[in-house]
Write a structure and sequence with these properties.
934 residues, alpha+beta, Isoleucyl-tRNA Synthetase, Domain 1, Isoleucyl-tRNA Synthetase, domain 2, 4-stranded antiparallel beta sheet, 17% strand, globular, RNA-binding
Length: 934
RNA sequence: GCCGGAGUGGCGGAAUGGCAGACGCGACGGAUUCAAAAUCCGUUGCCCGCAAGGGCGUGUGGGUUCAAGUCCCACCUCCGGCACCA
């Protein structure tokens, strides 16, 4: 330390800015800088931290550990907006705080870099997505570093890195090679799938097909939103009112071969595991609703041959029932039945029509010649509606009669079959029995089309109404009449099962995940399609070997979509597209994976980002997981948790498992948010209902309402990074939606200026410690002020209440500013606390005070409890609960003492005179209340 | 429609059932200055009052309690999520 002491109590001149260690010198001497100038000190300390690897985390934690994870940002071309640094600053404060308390902290950052915007940019400009993505990442990295976040940058990853893509593709291979064992409730290698004898007997192709039907990753024909004019497939959100959001072009729903993930296999297990998770009930409920488990029954309705006479129908129906009674209920619905799912099999006698989804496979067959034109027109129109349109708008019921009937399995009566888009093809069996008297939607439908309404349930109490969807007692229900709903459902379920006409069933709102996109900028699938001699696909699929990974993206010059929904990769050169293996010719899969394929496991790769052997070393994972703090989106938690879970299960299955069964509960919850402080905040905080959405929309509102984007670069230039960080934390609790106010940044900047002046004399020409900075011991008053501040800030960081922590630091500065003696020891302690929030300024002040850098790794001060309590306290005195006076009493005075002191207070004595005191409540150390009469 | 969450000064927001409005912004006053900026020190919920003092105040209406922003009931408003899942 190059200090030149001019006089005992004279200002201390500092000719070097830092310390006496030459290797720590920040480089060229900076001109005298008596004013707080973040533009100088912030880059200086960022460079220092980088040079000294200040925030590098160990490979394995030593002692207490904290995995502090941020939202995985998509590096958009616009760079960071002011919404981003909020969560990032919060986690950075905790990271710095924990580090200073000696915790092993891992706090990484990376980029979720696949995605649509880069591709659209490529289409517009011809720039390859990789180029623009790398440029955008560079901007993001620069901006994040500019804000002084204490990331371990040596762990930076991007989902687009070939070394990362490799493992994303590898995970897919594991999923492809895994089936879900319902009995054991876990994934197992496909080779262990028991093959039924009937399948075995049918030959190798049948066995392969059977396996394919059980794999966690499988192909299916799923409807997508195809916009011919834009030449692209659109997400549901991009389709509004049947036309594309951009351009207003018509959109059709058409089935395309897609890759799916069989998450529904996990529905029960996920729901059960929710019980064991230590999450707020509201979040659990959200999750539970999302899984949407419902129980009920499947029932088959007999479909007579078209045009058969009444007698022939009766005959065939009788035969069918006999066969069913003998052969039981078939796994898959045969062609002669319409299978429906209902949660209320007790309303079977109230069925007045059947309704199938427009996409129902039997639709064409069930449509009679007379009705064909109307049904076709209806379904054509429905295909132009996205799922969103069908559900979003006013639920006006539409539909059309197919012209045919089925036979009621209990009454033998014919029931008309309609097509209506309020029935979703993707749920249950895609067909329902309509019971207008006891279902809102069916009631509306029946009213719209003048269908019969038959009441078969009456409320247990009160009057019967035209529409009653509650539970009650059965009427007009044949042998079941008189049963309550609770008795009826199991009874009829058992009867239907015995008769082979139906069975109890469970359904989920949760759907299997669509895992493929017809896009360029995503991970290619490590899958080959076998071709025959004519070059046509044989339908045989061959996964690549792990050694073949990563499959790179081909070089394309034209990223534009084509006239058909063929993915851009199908236009790749032959050298990429066609592959030979074992003398057979293959064509690569040309779909790509969705953005979340890479982003759902980023938190694992951070722990072991350069591992070439595995996607993560199990020992490392076991040591660092679970994530201790995550401030980000609930939606991300949803999908992250569940996909993470699914991949984990697949992973364990594939590798023989390294997580013992007993530990699964804890390890499975990949995004589990563990530390106590989060629980204290409960749902208000980290586990907000859908914080990601809220954060995004907040940023949107901020920028929209102000008419321009608030750019962090500009704020940092004007006020400094420390001021921006502090502002984001100070304006309110973390979970609240806060409007951006540039004036508020000025307020916290003033606070930082005041911190600066506690240490530096601004009136001198050169950088000079303030004359008040001394080596004296702090006074008792100073000790009290400091330790109270310290205790509050420490507790507030633990509960993530940064706004009140900052308020307390401001109070401390307000206290310290007029102090004529400001002991170096006290200032050092304050700067240590400040370092978690405004690290650049803190480092600078720390050095100026003569301590060895970095304060970022200095020990967090211990709270000395003896300074937290006064000898005396001032307590309120109330009469009838109204504040009338205050008295000063010893802090440890008992109830009788303070009561006496209160009664003796002149004003109280005057008010009590002539009144009868009925009761006195005296709480030691808190208050006294007199209850009087008269 | 269903499920959450929230309503406190001009504004952002504090407040284990025990002094409502910490802290900051804004506003006002003072010191400093030739003057201003900056800085420092004050005042600042509303109403009545020269003052001492008093009254009213946490979306609305009830309730529990010696005591309610905080707990209970009903309602209003806003925000968020889910939403034709049979």
């Amino acid at each position: 330390m190059l200090l030149c002491v001019v006089g005992a109590s004279a200002p201390i001149r500092i000719s070097g800015l830092l310390t006496d260690q030459p290797e720590l010198s920040p480089g060229p001497l900076i001109e005298p800088m008596p004013k707080y100038d973040p533009a100088l000190i912030e880059p200086k300390w960022q460079a220092w931290w980088a040079e000294h690897d200040t925030f590098r985390s160990p490979r394995l934690p030593a002692g207490r550990k904290a995995y502090i994870l941020d939202m995985f940002p998509y590096p958009s071309g616009d760079g960071l907006h002011v919404g981003h640094p909020e969560g990032y600053t919060a986690t950075d404060i905790v990271s710095r705080f924990e580090r200073m308390r000696g915790t092993s902290v891992i706090h990484p950052m990376g980029f979720d870099a696949f995605g649509l915007p880069a591709e659209e940019h490529a289409i517009r400009t011809g720039t390859p997505p990789r180029e623009s993505t790398e440029r955008n990442i560079a901007t993001f990295r620069r901006q994040l570093q500019m804000l002084g976040f204490s990331y371990d940058w040596s762990r930076e990853i991007a989902t687009t890195d070939p070394s990362y893509v490799r493992w994303t593709q590898w995970i897919f291979l594991v999923l492809y090679d895994t089936w879900f064992d319902r009995e054991q409730q876990r994934g197992r290698p496909i080779a262990e799938l028991p093959i039924p004898d009937v399948v075995k007997d049918a030959g190798e192709a049948a066995v392969a097909a059977y396996r394919d039907s059980r794999r966690l990753a499988y192909q299916s024909e799923a409807p997508v939103n195809w916009c011919p004019a834009l030449g692209t497939v659109l997400a549901n959100e991009e389709v509004i009112g049947g036309v594309s959001e951009r351009g207003g072009h018509p959109v059709v729903r058409l089935p395309l071969r897609q890759w799916m993930l069989r998450i529904t296999s996990y529905a029960d297990r996920l729901e059960q595991e929710l019980d064991s998770l230590d999450w707020p009930d509201s979040i659990k409920k959200l999750q539970r609703d999302w899984i949407g488990r419902s129980t009920g029954a499947e029932v088959d309705f007999f479909l007579p041959a078209a045009g058969a006479t009444e007698a022939a129908v009766a005959e065939a129906y009788g035969q069918w029932k006999q066969n069913r009674a003998a052969g039981g209920y078939p796994e898959e619905p045969p062609g002669d039945v319409l299978r429906i799912y209902t949660t209320r099999p007790d309303t079977l006698y109230g069925v007045t029509c059947m309704v199938i989804a427009p996409e129902h496979p039997l639709r064409v067959r069930l449509t009679t010649a007379d009705s064909a034109a109307a049904v076709e027109a209806y379904c054509e129109a429905a295909s132009h509606k996205s799922d969103l349109d069908r559900t979003d708008l006013a639920h006006e019921k539409t539909g059309v009669f197919t012209g045919s009937h089925c036979i009621h399995p209990l009454t033998g009566q014919p029931v008309p079959i309609w097509v209506a888009d309020y029935v979703l093809a993707s749920y249950g069996t895609g067909a329902i029995m309509s019971v207008p008297a006891h279902d809102d939607r069916d009631y509306e439908f029946a009213n719209t089309f003048g269908l019969e309404i038959i009441t078969v349930v009456e409320p247990l109490v009160g009057e019967s109404t035209a529409l009653f969807s509650g539970r009650g007692r059965a009427v007009a229900s044949g042998p079941y009449t008189g049963l309550t709903t609770e008795e009826f459902i199991p009874q009829v379920g058992a009867d239907l099962e015995a008769a082979g006409l139906g069975r109890p069933a469970v359904n989920y709102k949760l759907r299997d995940w669509l895992f493929s996109r017809q896009r360029f900028w995503g991970e290619p699938f490590p899958i080959l399609h076998e071709l025959d001699d004519a070059g046509e696909p044989t339908g045989v699929i061959r996964p690549l070997e792990p050694a073949d990974l990563p499959v790179p993206l081909p070089e394309l010059t034209d990223f534009r979509p084509g006239q058909t929904p063929d993915p851009p990769l199908s236009r790749a050169g032959d050298d990429w597209l066609f592959v030979e293996r074992d003398g057979k010719r293959y064509r690569r899969e040309t779909n790509t994976m969705p953005q979340w394929a890479g982003s759902c496991w980023y938190y694992l790769r951070f722990l072991d980002p350069t591992n070439d052997e595995r996607f993560i070393d199990p020992a490392i994972e076991q040591a660092w997981m679970p994530v201790d703090l995550y401030v980000g989106g609930g939606r991300l938690v949803n999908q992250g948790m569940i996909l993470g879970e699914m991949e984990f299960t697949g992973y364990r299955a594939a590798t023989g498992g390294w997580v013992s069964a007993g530990e699964q509960g804890a390890a499975d919850a990949a995004m589990k948010i563990a530390p106590d402080q989060v629980e204290k905040q409960g749902e208000h905080f980290v586990l907000r209902d859908a914080p990601q959405v809220r954060v995004e929309s907040r940023a949107y509102k901020m920028s929209k309402s102000r008419g321009n984007v608030v750019n962090p670069d500009q704020i940092v230039r004007e006020f400094g990074a420390d001021a921006l960080r502090l502002y984001e934390m100070f304006m309110g609790p973390l979970e609240a939606t806060k409007p951006w106010s540039t004036a508020g940044v000025g307020g916290v900047r003033t606070f930082l200026d005041r911190c600066w002046r506690l240490v530096v004399d601004e009136n001198e020409d050169s950088l000079t410690l303030a004359a008040q900075v001394t080596d004296a011991e702090p006074t008792d008053e100073q000790q009290r002020a400091f330790h109270r501040m310290l205790a509050k800030v420490t507790a507030d960081i633990e509960s993530l209440s940064f706004n009140t922590a900052i308020a307390k630091m401001m109070e401390f500065v307000n206290f310290a500013t007029p102090q004529q003696q400001r002991p170096r020891k006290m200032l050092g302690g304050f700067v240590t606390v400040l370092a978690a929030f405004a690290p650049h300024l803190a480092e600078e002040l720390w050095s100026l005070l003569g301590f060895a850098a970095p304060v970022s790794l200095a020990a967090w001060p211990e709270v000395e409890a003896c300074w937290l309590y006064d000898q005396t306290v001032e307590i309120p005195v109330q009469i009838q609960g109204k504040l009338r006076a205050r008295v000063v009493v010893p802090a440890d005075a008992d109830a009788a003492t303070i009561e006496a002191a209160a009664a003796a207070e002149p004003k109280i004595a005057a008010l009590l005179a002539g009144k009868q005191v009925i009761k006195v409540i005296a709480v030691p150390g808190r208050m006294v209340n007199f209850v009087v009469k008269g």
